Amino acid sequence: MRISPTIPSVAILAVEGCYVSCAAGFADVLQAANAHLRQQQGPGCRPFEWSFVSTQGGPVAASNGMHFESQPLGWRRRFDVVVAPTIHYPGFKPFVRFLDQQTAIYARLRSQWNAGAWIGANCTGTFMLAQSGLLDGRAATTTCWLDRQFRSRYPEVDLHYRSVLTETDRLVCAGATATYLLQAIRIVDRFMGPHIASQCAKSMLIDVSHTGHIPSLPLLTETKHADSIVERAQHWLQKNMARDITMSDLAREVAVSDCTLVRRFSAAVGQSPIGYLQAVRLEAARALLEAGDMTVQSVAAQVGYSDASSFSRLSRQDFGLSPGEYRRRFQGPGRS
Q1: Residue from 115, 119, 129 nearest 170 by CA
Q2: Which 3 state secondary structure label does DSSP give 77?
Q3: Is 70 exposed, middle or buried (0-12, 13-18, 19+ CB in 10 A)?
Q4: pLDDT band at 119 (very low <50, low <70, confident <90, very high)
Q5: How far, in Å, CA of 61 to CA of 20, rounded?
Q6: Is residue 233 within 8 Å of 273, Cβ to Cβ?
Q7: 333 — phi, psi (to 5°)?
């Protein structure tokens, strides 16, 4: 635990398309922590101070159309904490374009971390932290519905996407959007101690016992891209997932070569056709396990796996539970 002898300074990144709730909400948690600190220690305390920062400064448009002012994130000033909030995800290709344009931010993140700052990232903001290279070889988490895209783009990162929060070498990652609250409490704990952190969490009704994502992901049928061939391939895979499918079958169906299909699929969706097919099969298996009383073997066959042991192995990797354990934990009400 670290209790800062000086006033802890926090930089909250304001990037185009960020979520106001995460950026401003993080500051709200710090404000609450300051109130508890002043009540406990009086006027001589050293509360948090924070700034909304961007590469150039000035007004920044958030994802919901709101604008808020920011200060320039210069090279000279050193912060104790820098936080990257959730960013709107408009689809894989435009999101990658956005990431590729943020080189100045990545350089500043590395500079701040090398100078001793803690770096936090939340939900899609974790992609920015990974893009900086700071997460290579280190544990991280991200929003569970983009874990495959994250793994594909940053294979050097030790991704624990079922964890709500990870902390390694002053790098704190949080999962889905609302987990910025847990991340903020962790920063309060590191700089003001567990007592203030606990008071802050209790007064704001932040459940710090929530440590894992519930393994219930949406069906991966996203087609927010402009590639009509890939969209046709996605729909065909969804309709025919129970079949024994080869890459050549799929390429023939959409009238392109195997290599062209893999290249275009990866560019549009962020994963291979076979990886996408496995994701769709496992999502369908989730629904069957939650809704009915089919045997594990029957569920496996229904979604395209003739070998129940292979299905169980893949389930453990993807769900974190065996098919039987998943059913017992998440089966709908009224069933046993």
Answers
A1: 119
A2: coil
A3: buried
A4: very high
A5: 9
A6: yes
A7: -60, 145
Q: What angle do CA 212, 241, 269 make, to 5 degrees?
A: 60
Among 227, 176, 185, CA closest to 206: 185
- pTM of the model as a whole: 0.67
> How far is it, in rounded angstroms, from Cα 319 to Cα 22?
27
Please give the Cα distance from 300 to 229 (Å, whole number). 28
Mean pLDDT of 46-69: 92
- Rounded Cα distance between 127 and 56, Å, is 21
DSSP one-letter string for 79-122: -SEEEE--B----HHHHHHHHHT-HHHHHHHHHHHHTT-EEEEE
Question: What is the pLDDT, as a whole number, of residue 5?
Answer: 57
| 129 membership: H or E segment, kind and range | helix 125-131
Cα diameter, the chain: 73
Residue reference for tokens 């062209």? 260
Place of tokens 């070569």: 257
d(CA 305, CA 278): 10
- CA dist., res. 284 & res. 300, Å (int): 10
- Segment 138-164, tens digit of pLDDT: 999 998 778 888 988 999 999 887 788
How do 49-54 and 67-72 pair as beta strands?
A: parallel
Please state, in angstroms and rounded to a whole number, the distance separating the CA atoms of residues 179 and 127: 16
List domains and CATH numbers for the chain.
9-203 (3.40.50.880), 228-330 (1.10.10.60)
Backbone dihedral region for residue 270 (phi beyond 0: left; psi -120 to 50: alpha; all else: beta): left
The tokens describing 224, both together, are 């927010």
From residue 220, give the alpha-carbon distance in Å to each of 54, 150, 217, 278: 33, 15, 8, 10
Distance separating alpha carbons of residues 105 and 128, to the nearest angstrom: 8
Question: What is d(CA 319, CA 144) in angstroms, rounded to the nearest whole number?
Answer: 11
SS3 content of the chain, % helix, strand, coil (to 5): 50, 15, 35
